[in-house]
Amino acid sequence: MKIYSLTLICLFLLNANLVKAQKQNKITYCINSNEKELLKQINLYRKTKKLPPIKLSTELTKVAKIHITDLTENHSDTGICNTHSWSNKGKWKACCYTDDHKNAALMWSKPSELTKYKSEGYEIAFETSENATPADALSGWKKSPGHNQVITEKGVFNKMGWKAIGIAVEGHFALVWFGVEPDNEPALPECK
Q1: Is the dihedral angle over the CA atoms 75, 79, 82, 86 positive or is it negative?
Q2: pTM of the entire structure?
Q3: What pLDDT, on the 0 to 100 scale, is given for residue 75?
Q4: Of residues 58, 29, 56, the one with CA closest to residue 40
Q5: What is the mean pLDDT of the chain?
Q6: Which helix (H) or strand (E) holds 104?
Q7: Which tens digit of pLDDT belongs to each residue from 60-69?
């Protein structure tokens, strides 16, 4: 009788811990070599413009990685919703981002919607038919006046004083998120 009761108690505790782990839905994130290289290249480019380097943000990187997964799995280029769009297949508010920037606020709010980062985020996105590389992404952004202004804090981004940057590079996409508030979360580990 005592063995039976002890077994039931153990099974109950094991099941309770499993349910707790599932509810927490812990996803682990890491930084890959392409993401580290893109961060390095962006900061070197900013240095040529006499701008300070931006510190890698754990929370904005999570946003970038969540978004790159959504783009990879759910984005179909309809010609209407561009790569700043978010599908309706996740735990976020869906957003069809169009060239008129009508839904910009839905994009800017993603960091506070998805992570501990409570300030707005500003995304630049690069898409290619091949695997995205840091050099190709930065080259593309330099040639695009709007994207270049985000990186170099010009135009409407004048004097933003970026304090945080999140990066994801995977498959056909490279995404970078910029924020004005520092991120004091522990650094993400390197991917193995």
Answers
A1: negative
A2: 0.85
A3: 79
A4: 56
A5: 87
A6: helix 104-108
A7: 999 999 999 9
**What is the C-alpha separation between 186 and 30, in angstroms, rounded?**
12
> By C-alpha distance, which of 168, 137, 190 is closest to 65?
168
The mean pLDDT of 93-98, rounded to a whole number, is: 92
Q: How far apart are CA 80 and CA 118, in angstroms?
A: 29
Q: Which of 86, 90, 88 is nearest to 121 (CA)?
A: 86
Q: How confident is the model at residue 20 (pLDDT cuts 50, 70, 90)?
A: very low
Would you state the structure tokens that stand for residue 146, as one six-digit string? Answer: 């709007």
Whole-number Å distance between alpha carbons of 150 and 145: 9
Between helix 145-152 and helix 33-48 the angle, nearest 10°, is: 80
> Looking at the chain, how many residues does it have?
192
